[in-house]
Amino acid sequence: MTTTRRDAIKTTGAFATLVSLGIITQAQANAAVSHDSFAVKSLEDALKAIGGQAASNDQVSVVSPDIAENGAVVPVGATSKLPNTTEMYLIVEKNPTPLSCAFTIPAGTDADVQTRLKMGQSTNVIAVVRADGKLFSASKETKVTLGGCGG
Amino acid sequence: MADPMRIRAALAGDTTTVRVLMSHPMEPGTRKDASGALIPAHFIRDVEATHNGKSVLKAMFSGSVSQNPFLSFKFKGAAKGDKVSVKWSDNKGDSRTDEATIA
Q1: CATH number at residue B78
Q2: Which top CATH class is A33-146?
Q3: Rounded to two decimals, what is the model's pTM?
Q4: How many CA atoms lie within 13 A of B14 on its CB side?
Q5: Ordered mean pLDDT values, 10 residues apiece, chain B (103 residues)
Q6: Residue ranges making up the domain that contains B78
Q7: Residues on chain B touching A115 (C-beta within 8 angstroms)
Q8: Searching chain A, which residue's CA lies closest to the CA of residue B68?
């Protein structure tokens, strides 16, 4: 390792300055979320980790049941009809760690994914997609009869 | 080594639908056992699907994805008989790769 502590400080400092000047936006700085983003405890922090507030858009949809009897296994999906959708995120608002999964969609892959999530209680499920560098979202409420996060 | 994944890949028109069922406990790290001690977190963090060496989907999971995670996605540009390979790795450094033939 030739990188000294001083160099590291200089580089981080310069990068922070660029961000603060708005030369590179925060969204570009966090092109993809890191594993740490999944540990955040609130919806605001989860959105911040993704890159800010997302505008609601009817081309994005969340597929989630109205009522889930078992919160441990809730089928959830997201689709986006927006062109150039590159990233998709699923957020379960009232979970202890709301950010649930992140998908990177390369060209040639449809913006249409499905998985199964755990939900602690009745909550809004939010899908956030990044299309052409902008964030769009959609949400749907799911009522949970039996929670699935333990306690 | 974890149990094998079950992967189904079917071509319809020009779109291939891939469905994956991984075998994993997906402990979020928030649950407690009978004696009240926290069960340590153990969940899949990264999943990547590739077709002919090209990445077709990357996913990052947290502990709030259900046990034995299911994943379904669609992509274009594959032919029957091609192989789709899926790899996951978890927070304990374990990983597994499986592949399926597109039908």
Answers
A1: 2.60.40.10
A2: mainly beta
A3: 0.80
A4: 5
A5: 86 93 89 86 92 92 91 92 93 91 91
A6: 6-28+41-101
A7: 65-66, 69-72
A8: A116
